[in-house]
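Below is one such protein, fold included:
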Amino acid sequence: MRELSVPKISKWPFFVADAVLLALAVFIFCQATGPLNTEQMIAAAACVMVGAAFGAWPFVLDYRAATKLAETEALTSVVAQVENIEIVAKRIADATAQWQTVNDSAEKTNVAAKQIADRMAVEAKEFTEFMTRANDTEKATLRLETEKLRRVEGESLQVIVRVFDNIFSLHASAMRSGNPKLAEQVSQFVNACRDAARRIGLMPYLAAPDEIFDPLRHQTVDAKVPAAGAVITDTLGVGYTYQGQMLRPAIVQVREAGMEPAPTGVPADEENELPLNEF
């Protein structure tokens, strides 16, 4: 589109007229021999005002021309925009038709997706119910197997404890036999058994002589709890812990607090013949 330009108006004629009128006003002022009378003042003022009007008139004409040019350009731009709007409207109509087609396809796809989702929900529910039943069955089976294993473990530990009780009796008999060689061999056997028991978490322990009775670690033969402050005099059965948990308290013989130890007639070198570190 061709660009419009503002027409140029020659300003020098207006400037010449302005200069002539101003010169006329000066001439009127200079021709007066005294104070200016009313006619002379009016004439001089009119010359100045008309001259000023002539000086400003070309700029007014330029402004009017520029304004008309701007209006023309704006009108031209509006016409072009209207043409563009018609093109855009046609494209919008085409896009609307395409969108309607896509919308119909989307609705069909949405219906199909909803049907698939419903089927998947039903299948997921059935699968969840199946897994729940299978999980319950598996849990019941595992619980049964765990109980069996714990029962077998408990029975095995009881067997091992009985074996260790017999080993304890054997060790005590060897220590009382007065045969150092036999006592040493039995002690080595006891140490080997103790190391094997430690590997599975089974720890035997003895009560130290004159140790204060502890109901959590010790037990009397009749399973009665003695008075507070009772002192252990002898270990009749070894205590055991399994993996840090109490399996069986040590079976001990006690005397009440303040009582003197009863004479046993056992030589001094045979007392405490089963120290804690021997088993």
User: Anything to note?
Assistant: The longest strand covers residues 231-237.
